[in-house]
Amino acid sequence: MKQIKILCYGDSNTWGYISGSDHQRYGNNERWTKILAKLLGSDFEIIEEGLNSRTLISNDTRPGKEGKNGYEYLIPCLDTHDPIDLVILMLGTNELKFTYNKSAKDVGEMIEKYFVKTILNRKSQLRDSYPNLLIVVPPVINEYQDYCKANDKYLGASHKSKELNDIYKDIVERYNCYFLSNQGLETGIDEVHLTKESHKKLAEMLEDKINNIYKTT
After folding, report:
1. For 86-128, what is each residue's pLDDT tens digit?
2. Which of 41, 55, 78, 121 is most buried when burial is the number of CB atoms within 10 A of its CB?
3. Residue 74 to residue 89: CA distance in whole angstroms
4. Are 148 and 154 in contact (CB under 8 A)?
C-alpha cells in the first residue's frame, strides 16, 4: 500500500498555540497533528502547515505579521507537497477578528471560492489525481470571557463562529467532500485556542474519519 499523504492547512490551532500563552507551542506529544500521525501509523504521512494569525484572504497590517493571507500561500503549499491525497482544512477564526469586519456568511463564501474550489481542482503535477478535502470547523470563540474581552479583538465573533458549523456543512455537501464539526472541541483561558485535551480529542475524531474514508475509497 502506498503511503497516504495528508496536508493539514490551518492557523494557530493547527500550529499548536497554547491557550493564554505568549506564543508557546504544544509539544510533539500534545498537538493534534502529531498525535494524529501516531494514531494513523506508517501508512500515512501527516504534513503540518499551521501558521499563527493565518487568515483566509485578509492581510494583517500589524508590524511583523506579513504573509498571513492563507490563500496567497495555498497553491505554493499544495505544489510543494504534491502529490497530496487529502487536505485537512481548519481556517476561519482569524477572519472573524473585529478589524476585518466579516460576517459568518462572508467567511463561508471565502472558504468556498478561494479554498474549496482551489484545492479540489488543483491537479497533481506528478500523477492523474486531485486532492480530497476534509473541512474541520474551528472551535467556537467566547468573546465574553475576561481574557478574550480585554482588547475586543474578537468583538462580535461568538455568534459568527457558532454559525460556521451549518455554513461549512452546506459547502461540504455541495462539493461532495468531508466534514468534521467542532462539537466537543473546547478552548482554554483565551477562549480561542484549543486545550491540550481538545487537541487529543480532535486527533481521535480525525483518525476515525480518515480510517472511514480510506476503507471505502
Report:
1. 999 999 999 999 999 999 999 999 999 999 999 999 999 999 9
2. 55
3. 11
4. yes
Nearest to 69 by CA among 87, 91, 88: 91
Q: What are the C-alpha distances in Å from 152 to residues 22, 29, 35, 124, 193?
A: 18, 33, 33, 42, 16
Arithmetic mean of pLDDT, 16-39? 97
Q: How does 93-124 read in b/e, with b if 16+ C-beta sit within 10 Å?
A: bbbbbeebebebebbbebbbebbbebbbebee
Distance CA 215, CA 96 (A): 36
Residue 177, SS3 per DSSP: coil
Q: What is the grid cell recorded at 41? A: 501509523
Q: What's the Cα-to-Cα distance from 159 to each of 95, 96, 109, 143, 179, rounded to whole Å?
A: 14, 10, 17, 9, 20
Check pLDDT > 50 for residue 69. Answer: yes
| List of residues 6+ apart from 166 with CB closer than 8 A | none
Q: How far apart are CA 134 and CA 43, in angstroms?
A: 18
pLDDT of residue 215: 81
Q: What is the distance, to the nearest Å, from the Cα of residue 207 to the centroid of all Cα atoms in its chain?
A: 15
Which residues are CB-contacts of 15 (< 8 A; sequence separation ≥ 6)?
Answer: 25, 31, 48, 50, 51, 52
- Give dist(CA 217, CA 211) in Å, integer: 10
Is residue 83 pLDDT above 50, yes or no? yes
Q: How far apart are CA 209 and CA 165, in angstroms?
A: 17
pLDDT value, residue 149: 62
